[in-house]
Design goal:
mainly alpha; two-stranded antiparallel ribbon; 9 helices; 2 strands; elongated; disordered N terminus
């Protein structure tokens, strides 16, 4: 078993890690979609909400406002499910990439970089998608076929990345609008005061939710191909038809 201190990769049959990744991504989408719908309803309405009259600062007022309170809860739940889904996805991607190296499949991204690219500023705008595209091609080669999943990766990454950006921008815009209202008056927040931020947030949440479908399809495709490759390779104990485990280039 390859570890952070090991020198080889080992082929391990896809299984629970892929299922957990798919289920957590789906669960996050199920939180995002209703949140986007709620934001759209609030943005299109003409509601008016009283701020807490007992507060004396803008920060306290907007933090306890009835419209902002529920939205902050939605954002908090989304953050928790996003963290769980991220951990599950990166665990699966690292293991699947390790399988490709153990099987001597044509792939240049190591398991370590498959994870690190997600946290590398600027590079994380495109490198994670490239790593997944390479993993799909390598998994196809392991199963004796060719990958034709370019469109699937493009749809997944476009909806995911644009959704992430819009969600962040929408939250910042909405908080700016609330601060502006609370700074001028400690009485009410109207739908019209924060509708711009809510619409942007709604679009971001719905796009992220939509990205779950191609993400799950990617997980299933890679796991299916690597499961088929396990038979051809000879099982976890004999990757690459009995060839020695290749060295780990990210440690060399």
């Amino acid at each position: 078993m390859a570890t952070a201190f090991g020198s080889t990769y080992e082929f391990r049959a896809p299984g629970r890690t892929g299922r957990v990744a798919a289920w957590t991504v789906a669960a996050h989408a199920l939180i995002l979609a209703p949140g986007g719908v709620v934001a759209m309803i609030l943005a299109s309405g003409d509601g008016e909400w009283d701020l807490d009259p007992s507060t004396t600062t803008a920060g306290g007022a907007w933090a306890t406002g009835p419209v902002i309170g529920p939205m902050r809860i939605v954002y908090a739940v989304q953050a928790v499910t996003a963290i769980v889904a991220m951990i599950a996805w990166l665990t699966w991607q690292s293991r699947a990439t390790e399988n490709a190296w153990a099987a001597r499949a044509p792939i240049a991204v190591t398991p370590g970089w498959a994870v690190f690219w997600w946290f590398t500023p600027f590079a994380n705008m495109g490198k994670p998608a490239g790593a997944i595209a390479q993993l799909l091609r390598a998994s196809s080669a392991m199963a004796g076929g060719r990958s034709r999943d370019g469109a699937l990766v493009a749809v997944w990454w476009t909806t995911f990345l644009v959704g992430q950006v819009l969600s962040f921008v929408g939250y910042v815009v909405m908080m700016g609008e609330v601060f502006s209202v609370a700074g001028a008056s400690f009485e009410t927040v109207r739908a019209a005061d924060i509708d711009e931020g809510l619409w942007i947030s709604a679009a971001g949440m719905l796009l992220q939710a939509a990205s779950a479908w191609p993400a799950i399809a990617i997980v299933r495709a890679i796991d299916r191909r690597q499961t088929g490759a396990q038979v051809d390779i000879g099982g976890p104990a004999a990757p690459a038809a009995g060839l020695p485990h290749p060295p780990r280039p990210d440690l060399g």
